[in-house]
Automatic annotation (TrEMBL):
CDD domains named among the record's database cross-references: PRX_Typ2cys
Membership in a protein family: Belongs to the peroxiredoxin family. AhpC/Prx1 subfamily.
Taxonomic lineage of the native organism: Eukaryota, Viridiplantae, Streptophyta, Embryophyta, Tracheophyta
Reaction(s) this enzyme catalyzes, per UniProt: a hydroperoxide + [thioredoxin]-dithiol = an alcohol + [thioredoxin]-disulfide + H2O
Pfam family, one: 1-cysPrx_C
Protein name, UniProt field: 2-Cys peroxiredoxin BAS1, chloroplastic
Length: 340
């Protein structure tokens, strides 16, 4: 909401002769701001009936060179006066008024005196958090977003670091050959991330026996990846890894898999298991502070491969190789429940 006050303030200086008319603007749809400026009488008469200034009347307000500077105490009094006006306006109920333009670029801001400075009132921290949450919900729940599980994985061709060299990785190159575990992490040289990355590397041989490749992705450059790999683990680095780290500096990969946080420009901890046909069969997304389990990823991969090899069976909760599976029909399921 924007208000216009035209008041005569006697014997208070603000860069012009005392007793002149002042214009005080309070408002803005997202914050309350006070702008005080000296407004000559001809300027006021030039306003149109709609409340808008005539373009020819918008001349800069230059200070009077023959006039002595404002006294600090008078400036402080003026600032305190305007500050009290601002407190009467609630920014949460502010609405733009029709026919009222934005503040003129020629308006003069209040002088900041030591005693009382008129500062713009800003949105509270809770309001900012609510705004961020709303934008995230809109992104995650958009009507155009198709569920990734059961669909073809978005293909990509990107630079990566492997064996301390720069290589290119194309996801579609694995179709018909291997399963892929594709996981995203927020940033290099952080805290939770190296624990996940090194844990997958330490178990790489087990995944390799299951004909599975591991690919890590972040929005960092290949140069950052290389520097991190060349840093030893005791210093927070990764050391040598057994799988590639992909660079997603354009953020296109993170966005296509739905894990990008738009207002931060980094990815959530998303993990996707992609089968040999290029179809996403499993996905998990953790918030930034929560690391993932390599054991659970391994168990889920084994369950996926089991049901693909045995299409007439399904895996119950917590299934591991060697456990009893279930027939997905009324009779077969009763046999399972009777046996456990």
């Amino acid at each position: 909401m924007r208000f216009f006050f035209f008041v005569k303030i006697a014997k208070i200086w603000l860069g012009d002769a005392c007793g002149r008319e002042r214009r005080i603007e309070i408002g803005g749809p997202e914050s309350v701001e006070i702008v005080c400026a000296v407004v000559p009488r001809p300027y006021l008469k030039a306003r149109s009936h709609s409340g808008r200034r005539h373009p020819s009347s918008q001349t800069p307000l230059a200070p009077n060179p023959t006039q002595s500077p404002p006294h600090p105490l008078r400036s402080a009094a003026m600032a305190a006066c305007c500050s009290s006006l601002a407190t009467a306006v609630s920014s949460s109920s502010a609405k733009p008024l029709a026919g009222i333009p934005p503040a003129s670029p020629h308006s003069l801001s209040l002088p900041r005196s030591p005693a009382a400075a008129a500062r713009p009132l800003r949105l509270s921290a809770s309001s900012s958090r609510s705004a961020r949450a709303s934008s995230f919900v809109a992104r995650a729940g958009g009507v155009d977003d198709a569920p990734l599980v059961g669909n073809k994985a978005p293909d990509f061709d990107a630079e990566a670091v492997f064996d301390q060299e720069f290589i290119n990785v194309k996801l579609s190159d694995y179709i018909g050959k291997k399963y892929v575990i594709l996981f995203f992490y927020p940033l290099d040289f952080t805290f939770v991330c190296p624990t996940e990355i090194t844990a997958f590397s330490d178990r790489y041989d087990e995944f390799e026996k299951l004909n599975t490749e591991i690919l890590g992705v972040s929005i960092d450059s290949v140069f950052s990846h290389l520097a991190w790999v060349q840093t030893d683990r005791k210093s927070g680095g990764l050391g040598d890894l057994k799988y590639p780290l992909i660079s997603d500096v354009t953020k296109s990969i993170s966005k296509s898999f739905g894990v990008l946080i738009p207002d931060q420009g980094i990815a959530l901890r998303g993990l996707f298991i992609i089968d040999k046909e290029g179809v996403i069969q499993h996905s998990t997304i953790n918030n930034l502070a929560i690391g993932r389990s390599v054991d659970e990823t391994m168990r889920t991969l084994q369950a996926l491969q089991y049901v693909q090899d045995n299409p007439d069976e399904v895996c119950p909760a917590g299934w591991k190789p060697g456990d009893k599976s279930m027939k997905p029909d009324p009779k077969g399921s009763k046999e399972y429940f009777a046996a456990i």
